Amino acid sequence: MRKLYTLILLLASTSFVSSQSITSANATLWNGGDGSSFVDAYVDIINTSNNTIDVSVVRKSEILVAGHESNFCWGVSCYPPFISTSPTPQPIAPNGVDQTFKGQLNPNGISGLSRVTYCFYNEANTADSICLEFFYDITLGINSYNAGVDYLSQPSPNPANTMAAFSYRIINPKGEISLIIRDILGQNIQKITLNSSSKNFILNTSSFKQGLYFCSLMNGDKIVKATRLSVVH
Predict the structure, then answer these.
(1) Separation between Cα atoms, residue 113 and residue 31, nearest integer Å
(2) pTM recorded for the entire structure
(3) What's the first-to-final CA gap in the chain, in angstroms?
(4) Number of folded domains in the chain?
(5) What is the pLDDT confidence band of residue 73, given thresholds at 50, 70 and 90?
(6) CA separation (Å) from 189 to 25, 83, 158, 183, 215?
(7) Three-state SS for 7?
(8) What does each C-alpha distance from 230 to 122, 135, 184, 205, 213 come to in angstroms?
(9) How far apart are CA 97 and CA 24, in angstroms?
(10) How far apart (Å, rounded) are the C-alpha atoms in residues 153 and 163?
(11) I need a surface site. Which of 65, 77, 126, 186 has the fewest CB within 10 A?
(12) Do 30 and 131 fall within a single domain?
């Protein structure tokens, strides 16, 4: 009987440790700017448990355009680019929502697509965590003259391994909008039909061979923008 009781306690303890209490309504967040000012991105962090938990945040990775800088705020404090982990955890009440996080990018007037991954974790159980990806699409002058032109971002990351993120804009659609991927020999590798004149999307590159690819944004049968993508596994 004692062995059975011990086993029940062990199973209950294992279930508690592996339970997931930190969640968010978003896994990926897209943000845009014209390069003239900081870009602020906010996200709600939710505690689904019946206990107060102390949550810390770490900048897990960042793929930044040269000249871009990322920093973040958590709780009542903000941290510069050289600090990756919040030194002070933020308590979140049972079934509560914390709205204090801000992932900020300083583009320094430079265009391009940067990506930063932030992970939020329970100080008492680091396996209880969630990681979110923040994309920052900076188009110089997007609020002025560039707002009236077609646009295709540089891929991020580049080189890519399993994925590359893009954003695009077509001002006057004239038929099917698509992205065509060609290899260095000019052979079509993939065609992606896009169902919107303006969108953010992620290209799966896990099956691509290593090498250089050309990505063409098509407005009907016309190439309006093109960029290069390097794949390295």
Answers:
(1) 10
(2) 0.66
(3) 54
(4) 2
(5) very high
(6) 34, 41, 18, 7, 10
(7) helix
(8) 37, 19, 10, 10, 6
(9) 9
(10) 15
(11) 186
(12) yes
